[in-house]
Amino acid sequence: MAYVTIRDVALRSGTSISTVSRALNNSGRISPATKAAIEQAARELGYIPDSRAKAMRSTKTSLVALLVPDIRNPYFADLAYAIQDTLFDAGYCTSIGTSSENGEKQDAYITSMLSQHVDGAIIVPRGGATPAMRAIVEKNVPMVFVDRHVSDMHEVPVVDSDPAPGLSQALNDLHDRGFTRVGYISGPILDSPTFQEREAAFRTIAGTLFREDGIFVESTSFGHVSCASVMRKMRSWGVQAVIFGYSQDAIQAISLMGSRGFVIGKDISLISFDDLEMFTLTTPRISVISQQVQKIGSLGAKLLLDRVEKRGRAESQRVKTLYIPRESVAAAL
Protein backbone atom coordinates (compact mmCIF):
# COMPACT_ATOMS: atom_id res chain seq x y z
CA MET A 1 0.00 0.00 0.00
CA ALA A 2 1.43 3.41 -1.03
CA TYR A 3 0.78 6.17 1.48
CA VAL A 4 0.03 9.68 0.22
CA THR A 5 2.81 12.04 1.34
CA ILE A 6 3.03 15.76 1.83
CA ARG A 7 5.05 15.85 -1.41
CA ASP A 8 2.04 14.38 -3.29
CA VAL A 9 -0.21 17.11 -1.88
CA ALA A 10 2.30 19.76 -2.94
CA LEU A 11 2.39 18.41 -6.52
CA ARG A 12 -1.43 18.23 -6.76
CA SER A 13 -1.92 21.77 -5.42
CA GLY A 14 1.00 23.29 -7.34
CA THR A 15 2.69 24.59 -4.20
CA SER A 16 5.87 23.84 -2.25
CA ILE A 17 6.22 21.25 0.51
CA SER A 18 6.86 23.99 3.08
CA THR A 19 3.68 25.82 2.01
CA VAL A 20 1.64 22.60 2.36
CA SER A 21 3.14 22.05 5.82
CA ARG A 22 2.17 25.55 6.93
CA ALA A 23 -1.35 25.18 5.54
CA LEU A 24 -2.06 21.82 7.11
CA ASN A 25 -0.53 22.76 10.46
CA ASN A 26 -2.08 26.25 10.59
CA SER A 27 1.33 27.86 11.03
CA GLY A 28 2.85 30.85 9.30
CA ARG A 29 1.32 33.22 6.78
CA ILE A 30 -0.59 31.83 3.82
CA SER A 31 -3.40 33.23 1.69
CA PRO A 32 -6.92 31.82 2.18
CA ALA A 33 -7.08 30.79 -1.50
CA THR A 34 -3.80 28.84 -1.31
CA LYS A 35 -4.85 27.18 1.95
CA ALA A 36 -8.20 26.15 0.43
CA ALA A 37 -6.46 24.69 -2.66
CA ILE A 38 -4.09 22.67 -0.48
CA GLU A 39 -6.88 21.34 1.75
CA GLN A 40 -8.88 20.34 -1.34
CA ALA A 41 -5.86 18.51 -2.78
CA ALA A 42 -5.35 16.71 0.56
CA ARG A 43 -8.99 15.59 0.59
CA GLU A 44 -8.89 14.38 -2.99
CA LEU A 45 -5.76 12.35 -2.39
CA GLY A 46 -6.94 10.98 0.97
CA TYR A 47 -3.89 12.41 2.75
CA ILE A 48 -3.45 11.33 6.39
CA PRO A 49 -0.92 13.32 8.46
CA ASP A 50 2.08 11.36 9.74
CA SER A 51 1.60 11.20 13.51
CA ARG A 52 5.29 10.41 14.00
CA ALA A 53 6.36 13.62 12.34
CA LYS A 54 3.73 15.55 14.26
CA ALA A 55 5.01 14.06 17.51
CA MET A 56 8.57 15.10 16.69
CA ARG A 57 7.40 18.67 16.25
CA SER A 58 5.13 18.91 19.26
CA THR A 59 6.48 16.20 21.64
CA LYS A 60 2.85 15.02 21.97
CA THR A 61 1.59 11.86 20.27
CA SER A 62 -2.00 11.68 21.62
CA LEU A 63 -1.21 7.99 22.18
CA VAL A 64 -1.62 6.15 25.49
CA ALA A 65 -0.24 2.67 26.18
CA LEU A 66 -2.47 0.18 28.01
CA LEU A 67 -1.07 -3.07 29.38
CA VAL A 68 -3.39 -5.79 30.70
CA PRO A 69 -2.57 -9.37 31.76
CA ASP A 70 -4.86 -11.15 29.28
CA ILE A 71 -7.26 -9.51 26.83
CA ARG A 72 -9.07 -12.87 26.46
CA ASN A 73 -10.19 -12.63 30.09
CA PRO A 74 -13.66 -11.01 29.90
CA TYR A 75 -12.93 -8.83 32.93
CA PHE A 76 -9.84 -7.28 31.33
CA ALA A 77 -11.62 -6.97 27.98
CA ASP A 78 -14.32 -4.89 29.72
CA LEU A 79 -11.66 -2.87 31.53
CA ALA A 80 -9.77 -2.16 28.29
CA TYR A 81 -12.98 -1.12 26.53
CA ALA A 82 -13.90 1.37 29.28
CA ILE A 83 -10.38 2.86 29.28
CA GLN A 84 -10.17 3.09 25.48
CA ASP A 85 -13.64 4.64 25.22
CA THR A 86 -12.86 7.36 27.78
CA LEU A 87 -9.49 8.17 26.19
CA PHE A 88 -11.02 8.34 22.70
CA ASP A 89 -13.61 10.87 23.87
CA ALA A 90 -10.69 13.00 25.09
CA GLY A 91 -8.87 12.81 21.74
CA TYR A 92 -6.39 10.03 22.55
CA CYS A 93 -5.78 6.68 20.87
CA THR A 94 -4.87 3.55 22.84
CA SER A 95 -2.15 1.01 22.11
CA ILE A 96 -3.14 -2.21 23.93
CA GLY A 97 -0.69 -4.94 24.90
CA THR A 98 -0.91 -8.07 27.04
CA SER A 99 1.65 -9.38 29.53
CA SER A 100 0.20 -12.91 29.85
CA GLU A 101 0.97 -12.56 33.58
CA ASN A 102 4.65 -12.80 32.61
CA GLY A 103 7.17 -10.34 34.05
CA GLU A 104 9.51 -10.48 31.05
CA LYS A 105 6.70 -9.84 28.57
CA GLN A 106 5.45 -7.01 30.75
CA ASP A 107 8.84 -5.25 30.72
CA ALA A 108 9.33 -5.89 26.99
CA TYR A 109 6.02 -4.19 26.22
CA ILE A 110 6.81 -1.27 28.52
CA THR A 111 10.18 -0.79 26.80
CA SER A 112 8.49 -0.90 23.40
CA MET A 113 5.88 1.69 24.36
CA LEU A 114 8.58 4.02 25.68
CA SER A 115 10.23 3.88 22.26
CA GLN A 116 6.94 5.12 20.75
CA HIS A 117 7.05 8.23 22.95
CA VAL A 118 3.55 7.66 24.30
CA ASP A 119 1.95 10.48 26.27
CA GLY A 120 1.18 8.17 29.19
CA ALA A 121 0.66 4.59 30.33
CA ILE A 122 -2.08 2.69 32.13
CA ILE A 123 -0.88 -0.63 33.50
CA VAL A 124 -2.42 -3.60 35.29
CA PRO A 125 0.85 -4.63 36.97
CA ARG A 126 2.11 -8.08 37.76
CA GLY A 127 4.12 -8.50 40.95
CA GLY A 128 6.44 -5.81 42.26
CA ALA A 129 8.34 -2.91 40.74
CA THR A 130 10.49 -3.79 37.72
CA PRO A 131 13.34 -1.92 35.98
CA ALA A 132 11.01 -1.00 33.09
CA MET A 133 8.41 0.45 35.46
CA ARG A 134 11.11 2.44 37.22
CA ALA A 135 12.24 3.72 33.82
CA ILE A 136 8.77 5.16 33.18
CA VAL A 137 8.93 7.09 36.45
CA GLU A 138 12.50 8.28 35.79
CA LYS A 139 11.53 9.55 32.33
CA ASN A 140 8.57 11.44 33.87
CA VAL A 141 6.07 9.63 31.64
CA PRO A 142 2.65 9.88 33.35
CA MET A 143 1.58 6.45 34.58
CA VAL A 144 -1.43 5.03 36.43
CA PHE A 145 -2.02 1.54 37.81
CA VAL A 146 -5.53 0.08 37.54
CA ASP A 147 -7.11 -2.96 39.21
CA ARG A 148 -3.85 -3.81 41.01
CA HIS A 149 -1.18 -1.85 42.84
CA VAL A 150 2.55 -2.32 43.35
CA SER A 151 3.47 -2.23 47.03
CA ASP A 152 6.83 -0.48 46.57
CA MET A 153 5.73 2.13 44.01
CA HIS A 154 3.57 4.46 46.11
CA GLU A 155 4.42 7.38 43.82
CA VAL A 156 2.19 5.93 41.10
CA PRO A 157 -1.55 6.62 41.61
CA VAL A 158 -3.89 3.63 41.54
CA VAL A 159 -7.55 3.08 40.71
CA ASP A 160 -8.74 -0.23 42.11
CA SER A 161 -11.60 -1.76 44.06
CA ASP A 162 -12.15 -2.04 47.80
CA PRO A 163 -13.07 -5.72 48.38
CA ALA A 164 -14.53 -5.22 51.86
CA PRO A 165 -18.01 -3.78 51.03
CA GLY A 166 -18.92 -6.53 48.54
CA LEU A 167 -17.48 -9.31 50.69
CA SER A 168 -19.35 -8.00 53.73
CA GLN A 169 -22.64 -7.97 51.82
CA ALA A 170 -22.04 -11.47 50.42
CA LEU A 171 -21.01 -13.02 53.74
CA ASN A 172 -23.91 -11.42 55.60
CA ASP A 173 -26.25 -12.85 52.95
CA LEU A 174 -24.79 -16.35 53.48
CA HIS A 175 -25.06 -15.93 57.25
CA ASP A 176 -28.69 -14.81 57.00
CA ARG A 177 -29.50 -17.85 54.82
CA GLY A 178 -28.28 -20.17 57.57
CA PHE A 179 -24.82 -21.19 56.36
CA THR A 180 -22.36 -22.09 59.12
CA ARG A 181 -19.28 -23.13 57.10
CA VAL A 182 -18.00 -21.04 54.20
CA GLY A 183 -15.06 -21.65 51.86
CA TYR A 184 -12.88 -19.12 50.06
CA ILE A 185 -10.54 -19.69 47.05
CA SER A 186 -8.00 -16.87 46.88
CA GLY A 187 -6.61 -17.19 43.36
CA PRO A 188 -2.95 -16.54 42.36
CA ILE A 189 -2.16 -14.83 45.64
CA LEU A 190 1.65 -15.06 45.82
CA ASP A 191 2.38 -12.37 43.22
CA SER A 192 -0.67 -10.21 43.82
CA PRO A 193 -1.19 -7.68 46.64
CA THR A 194 -4.78 -7.38 45.36
CA PHE A 195 -5.57 -11.06 45.94
CA GLN A 196 -3.77 -10.90 49.27
CA GLU A 197 -5.99 -7.99 50.32
CA ARG A 198 -9.13 -9.88 49.28
CA GLU A 199 -8.16 -12.92 51.33
CA ALA A 200 -7.35 -10.76 54.37
CA ALA A 201 -10.72 -9.00 54.06
CA PHE A 202 -12.50 -12.35 53.83
CA ARG A 203 -10.72 -13.72 56.92
CA THR A 204 -11.58 -10.61 58.94
CA ILE A 205 -15.27 -10.40 57.97
CA ALA A 206 -15.97 -14.14 57.86
CA GLY A 207 -14.10 -14.72 61.12
CA THR A 208 -16.52 -12.38 62.88
CA LEU A 209 -19.65 -13.94 61.34
CA PHE A 210 -18.68 -17.64 61.28
CA ARG A 211 -15.71 -17.79 63.70
CA GLU A 212 -12.37 -19.30 62.64
CA ASP A 213 -13.66 -22.87 62.80
CA GLY A 214 -16.39 -21.96 60.31
CA ILE A 215 -14.18 -20.83 57.44
CA PHE A 216 -11.98 -22.77 55.01
CA VAL A 217 -9.41 -20.84 52.95
CA GLU A 218 -7.40 -22.25 50.04
CA SER A 219 -4.72 -19.98 48.61
CA THR A 220 -3.46 -22.01 45.66
CA SER A 221 -4.34 -21.10 42.08
CA PHE A 222 -6.40 -23.60 40.15
CA GLY A 223 -5.64 -26.00 37.41
CA HIS A 224 -8.26 -28.65 36.69
CA VAL A 225 -6.55 -31.21 38.96
CA SER A 226 -6.07 -28.85 41.91
CA CYS A 227 -9.64 -27.59 41.46
CA ALA A 228 -11.00 -31.11 41.95
CA SER A 229 -8.77 -31.69 44.97
CA VAL A 230 -9.75 -28.45 46.70
CA MET A 231 -13.47 -28.92 46.07
CA ARG A 232 -13.28 -32.47 47.50
CA LYS A 233 -11.55 -31.18 50.65
CA MET A 234 -14.12 -28.43 51.11
CA ARG A 235 -17.04 -30.81 50.66
CA SER A 236 -15.56 -33.32 53.12
CA TRP A 237 -15.12 -30.49 55.63
CA GLY A 238 -18.78 -29.56 55.35
CA VAL A 239 -18.51 -26.40 53.26
CA GLN A 240 -21.81 -25.62 51.53
CA ALA A 241 -21.00 -22.16 50.15
CA VAL A 242 -17.82 -21.03 48.34
CA ILE A 243 -16.59 -17.57 47.39
CA PHE A 244 -13.99 -17.27 44.62
CA GLY A 245 -11.56 -14.35 44.75
CA TYR A 246 -10.59 -14.94 41.10
CA SER A 247 -13.23 -15.39 38.42
CA GLN A 248 -11.10 -17.73 36.28
CA ASP A 249 -11.01 -20.19 39.19
CA ALA A 250 -14.80 -19.94 39.49
CA ILE A 251 -15.13 -20.81 35.78
CA GLN A 252 -12.96 -23.91 36.32
CA ALA A 253 -15.06 -24.94 39.31
CA ILE A 254 -18.39 -24.43 37.51
CA SER A 255 -17.18 -26.67 34.68
CA LEU A 256 -15.96 -29.33 37.12
CA MET A 257 -19.16 -29.31 39.17
CA GLY A 258 -21.25 -29.75 36.04
CA SER A 259 -19.18 -32.75 34.95
CA ARG A 260 -19.49 -34.29 38.44
CA GLY A 261 -23.26 -33.84 38.62
CA PHE A 262 -23.28 -31.15 41.32
CA VAL A 263 -26.17 -28.71 41.10
CA ILE A 264 -25.02 -25.18 41.89
CA GLY A 265 -27.52 -23.38 44.08
CA LYS A 266 -28.71 -26.70 45.51
CA ASP A 267 -25.80 -28.99 46.37
CA ILE A 268 -23.47 -26.04 46.87
CA SER A 269 -23.83 -22.25 46.72
CA LEU A 270 -21.29 -20.23 44.75
CA ILE A 271 -20.21 -16.57 44.59
CA SER A 272 -17.43 -15.15 42.41
CA PHE A 273 -15.63 -11.85 42.13
CA ASP A 274 -16.20 -10.04 38.81
CA ASP A 275 -19.55 -9.56 37.12
CA LEU A 276 -18.72 -11.36 33.86
CA GLU A 277 -21.40 -11.57 31.19
CA MET A 278 -21.11 -15.36 31.14
CA PHE A 279 -22.19 -15.49 34.79
CA THR A 280 -25.59 -14.13 33.75
CA LEU A 281 -25.92 -16.70 30.96
CA THR A 282 -25.34 -19.85 33.02
CA THR A 283 -28.08 -21.86 34.69
CA PRO A 284 -28.33 -20.95 37.48
CA ARG A 285 -27.04 -17.41 37.13
CA ILE A 286 -23.95 -16.82 39.30
CA SER A 287 -23.98 -14.45 42.26
CA VAL A 288 -21.05 -12.03 42.04
CA ILE A 289 -19.05 -9.42 43.87
CA SER A 290 -18.78 -6.75 41.21
CA GLN A 291 -15.72 -4.53 41.08
CA GLN A 292 -17.68 -2.13 38.86
CA VAL A 293 -15.08 -2.57 36.13
CA GLN A 294 -16.49 0.12 33.83
CA LYS A 295 -16.15 2.65 36.62
CA ILE A 296 -12.59 1.55 37.40
CA GLY A 297 -11.63 1.84 33.72
CA SER A 298 -13.20 5.26 33.25
CA LEU A 299 -11.69 6.65 36.47
CA GLY A 300 -8.27 5.22 35.56
CA ALA A 301 -8.35 6.91 32.15
CA LYS A 302 -9.51 10.23 33.64
CA LEU A 303 -6.79 10.05 36.29
CA LEU A 304 -4.15 9.54 33.60
CA LEU A 305 -5.56 12.44 31.56
CA ASP A 306 -5.25 14.66 34.64
CA ARG A 307 -1.57 13.68 34.86
CA VAL A 308 -0.89 14.08 31.13
CA GLU A 309 -2.59 17.47 30.94
CA LYS A 310 -1.26 18.54 34.37
CA ARG A 311 -4.65 19.26 35.90
CA GLY A 312 -3.89 19.41 39.60
CA ARG A 313 -2.67 16.56 41.78
CA ALA A 314 -3.66 13.03 40.72
CA GLU A 315 -4.87 11.05 43.74
CA SER A 316 -5.45 7.30 44.00
CA GLN A 317 -9.08 6.26 44.07
CA ARG A 318 -10.97 3.18 45.27
CA VAL A 319 -14.26 1.88 43.92
CA LYS A 320 -16.53 0.04 46.35
CA THR A 321 -17.31 -3.55 45.39
CA LEU A 322 -20.97 -4.47 45.16
CA TYR A 323 -22.63 -7.83 45.89
CA ILE A 324 -25.19 -8.96 43.32
CA PRO A 325 -27.15 -12.01 44.57
CA ARG A 326 -28.49 -14.48 41.99
CA GLU A 327 -29.78 -18.05 41.84
CA SER A 328 -26.38 -19.70 42.58
CA VAL A 329 -26.95 -18.90 46.27
CA ALA A 330 -29.82 -20.64 48.02
CA ALA A 331 -30.82 -21.29 51.61
CA ALA A 332 -28.50 -23.57 53.59
CA LEU A 333 -29.49 -27.24 53.65
Automatic annotation (TrEMBL):
InterPro entries referenced in this protein's UniProt entry, alphabetically: HTH_LacI, LacI/GalR-like_sensor, Lambda_DNA-bd_dom_sf, Peripla_BP_I
Keywords: DNA-binding, Repressor, Transcription, Transcription regulation
Record protein name field: Transcriptional regulator, LacI family
Source taxonomy: Bacteria, Bacillati, Actinomycetota, Actinomycetes, Bifidobacteriales
GO terms of molecular function: DNA-binding transcription factor activity; transcription cis-regulatory region binding
Pfam families the record matches: LacI, Peripla_BP_3
Organism, scientific name: Parascardovia denticolens DSM 10105 = JCM 12538
All copies of domain HTH lacI-type, residue ranges: 4-58
